[in-house]
Amino acid sequence: MTRGALLVAGTTSDAGKSVVTAGICRWLARRGVKVAPFKAQNMSLNSYVTPDGAEIGRAQAMQAAACGLEPTADMNPILLKPGGDRRSQVVVLGEPIADVDALEYGAHRDRLREIALAALERLRAAYDVVICEGAGSPAEINLRAGDIANMGLARAAGLPVIVVGDIDRGGVFASLYGTLALLEPADQALVAGFVINKFRGAPELLAPGLAMLRGLTGRPVYGVLPWRDGLWLDAEDSLALAADPPAAGGGGNRGTLRVAVVRLPRISNFTDADALAAEPGVLVRFVTSPWEAEDADLLVLPGTRATVADLDWLRRTGLAEAVAARARAGRPVLGICGGYQMLARTIRDEVESRAGHVDGLGLLPATVEFRPAKTLGRPSGEGYGHPVAGYAIHHGVVTPTGGEPFPGGCRSGAVWGTSWHGLLENDGFRRAFLADVAAAAGRDFAPAPDTSFAALRERRLDALGDLVEHHLDTAALLRLLENGVDDGLPVLPPGGV
Length: 497
Known about the structure:
Blueprint: E1 4-10, H1 17-30, E2 35-38, E3 41-43, E4 47-49, E5 55-57, H2 58-67, E6 78-82, E7 87-92, E8 95-101, H3 102-105, H4 109-126, E9 129-133, H5 151-157, E10 161-166, H6 172-181, H7 185-188, E11 191-199, H8 203-217, E12 221-226, E13 257-262, E14 267-268, H9 274-277, E15 282-287, H10 290-293, E16 298-301, E17 303-304, H11 307-316, H12 319-328, E18 333-336, H13 338-343, E19 346-349, E20 356-359, E21 366-377, E22 380-383, E23 386-389, E24 392-400, E25 404-406, E26 409-412, E27 415-418, H14 427-441, H15 453-471, H16 474-483
Parallel strand pairs: 1-9, 1-10, 2-9, 3-6, 10-11, 11-12, 13-15, 13-16, 16-18, 18-27, 19-21
Antiparallel strand pairs: 4-5, 6-7, 7-8, 14-17, 19-20, 21-24, 22-23, 25-26, 26-27
């Protein structure tokens, strides 16, 4: 019986920690191992609500799905949600407890470390294996004293560590070597080896570098994961938006529906666009200017951690007028959560921005009031004759004062608004909504009758499991889980800081 735990760290943010963790989870789950994911501290604006109403990082919910589990608060006990003025909301075991800046956060650090370690211990008691994901890079030496997500966690819990490097960025050997060399000796002792991610080249050209890295560090490369298109899902943070999500396929004679999602400065839960991008014939791109959105058949205002501040940005960039012009012309607009709040007539916010009364875009008959208690839930209902479900995460409560009913919100003409995330993952509803959008936009587009977003996510999770199974030294990973790190691994100069 495989037992144990390990930490997947990375040389940088977006190096591939989340997907490697998910891949290892899926590979182990397919072997019959009772496995769970864990991330002690996550800084992300993409979050999810567990069945019991706790808010956690969206990536940990995806990793739980890779394990065949419903997510729990223990899988991400500390979530930091950045807002304005360099402050973040601190969510602990699924509930917001404070808004702090980086210096104020230090006052909570010791208590949060104990909470994170206790959550990990509960998972280790309940599951055979726990695959932990680090945050950022373990070589952020200015933050090491207060670290609870990388080597601080590994040291406290005795976790072996593998470090993932993204070769597509360039400089992967320097990044892997430098990450190890900057760690203090006791931290280096827990680093068992490396994984190289997103490789596109000829393996024979890479092989000498792998051998040299092992000679320089005394540690193996557990494998090289090749670049794979089409694995974009449930991204951790907005760094992933450097590339748009791929469309699921060509539109054939159904035509193509073009969707523009506004990339707000504090965009949150942009994973709502994943289900649109999964639909054959739908092309999704993220935009930051009116001209980029001009030819879109559907413009989406997504969630945001700072509704009033991002609404001001929308006005300064000219996008607010572009949205209003679309609505006047009967061209489709969809607002989700914070985007829905922007579409309302008035906003009263004494909580998030403390701006008081603010005029919304006035495109939906609704008012917004921000309340101190955050709404967290898994609502359900019906839309276009189909059962629907989603999840709600917001301080701003929208009250429709007219218009037509729409799940989690309302509709007026070609403008729709909803407070529910995940609404578009409901297949029948999504197809009916897109057909309505296409009709309003005058497009010759018919949604595919059999697209299943849940099945697509399962295929992508299986693809991640296949990458681990076929390209990593899985026998070595099993030994690492069962036995931990070998004693006597060499310490690199400068031997810490």
